[in-house]
Model the fold of this input.
Amino acid sequence: MTAIERRAVVSLAMVYAFRMLGLFSLLPVLALYADEYQFSTPVLVGLALGIYGLGQACLQLPMGMLSDRIGRKPVIIFGLLLFVAGGVLAASADNIFLIIFGRLLQGAGAIASTLTALLADLTREEHRSKAMAAIGGSIGIAFALAMILGPAIAAGVGLSGLFLVTSGLAFASILLVIFLVPSPPRQYSDADAQAMTGLLGRCLRDPQLMRLNVGIFVLHGILMAIFVVVPGLLEQQGLVAASHWQVYLPVMGLAFVLMLPLMIVAEKQGKSKAVFLLSIGGLVVSMFFASLVWANFWGVVLVLLVFFIGFNLLEASLPSLVSKMVYPGGKGTAMGVYSTFQFMGAFCGGVLGGWLVGHWGGAVVFVAAGLVALVWLLLAWGMTLPAASKSLVIAWQFGEWDASRLRGELMVLTGAIELTVLEKEQTAYFRVSDAFDRTQLPQGLEWRA
Done:
């Protein structure tokens, strides 16, 4: 990587991390402090937890398309300003409805797809996978820190103070975008890095991709639903809110350590599907077990440990599987749809979790989560992993080739698997086997890996 590329990756990873730290630091504490606000009910607490996902789900793709027109940085800064405003509004709240509206404003700053597009603008194709891995790592670290720091900060300065901290993190991100993130010399239209509306229908019709989309919906729905319940269970067992980090710190650390051997088995021994199904099975078992031991402190701790081992594995595996299964040139669109399902799952999980707690109690939330996870396990059972392959990006001079001629000449080559043609961009994405001989390509076509 060049110095500019390294600066782009580090600074954008920090923006991602600050933003996710702000979003998720409320997860382990919001249900504990909600009684301090007027009109609070379990349903409204669940809505406050998950409603950021509604804003993210509805505005993720529109914000990305707006950035294609007016530039990446203005959209990112605007989204972060919305996040700042949402945190300040929630910090000043004396009733649960203002908390809900503040969280919705935070979610309306839906800039994840725009950040990804900016990263693509600032890095070369051959370094993009490493750049995205760094971003993914920063998000994982931010989530773990949020679970630990959220309770500690809220214990010191209250929920209002925690909301102000989230606004401060968003403001720091604005400064990073202005002063540290490089400005791209030009914006690229890269179907592997950003959503293309013309490819959306193909993505939604792909049964393999939809299995993964349903999976991330369920995973984040369960996460939000159980955290309407878990903080209260820990408090009922005598652990004051200020000490909840003492549970989350060892649980998150041990879950990460125990996840690593399973990841190695999945990648090195070709057991990706088996480990994937085992992880979903872990969710099923942990949720049904939680419905039996929810009144026991060590039972809840064990449930959290098993849940987060599975959660961490699935959170890492699902985006990788999307990248492997998506049709050539569809990665940006597929990840946009995937993110929309993820955030919609968070919204639905929070609302349904709160509703179930309000009507039938916490144990029923775990039973419902277990049943939903079981349905996901049955859907995932039919998943087929693709054979090892690689993608070539094909370009040509205007007027020399069209979609029909490209398909006719490329798809008959030995090792050809799938082809996506974007005629207006004079670009095609060509999936081929690892053994494909590039010297077969017809003259007049330029390619890059």
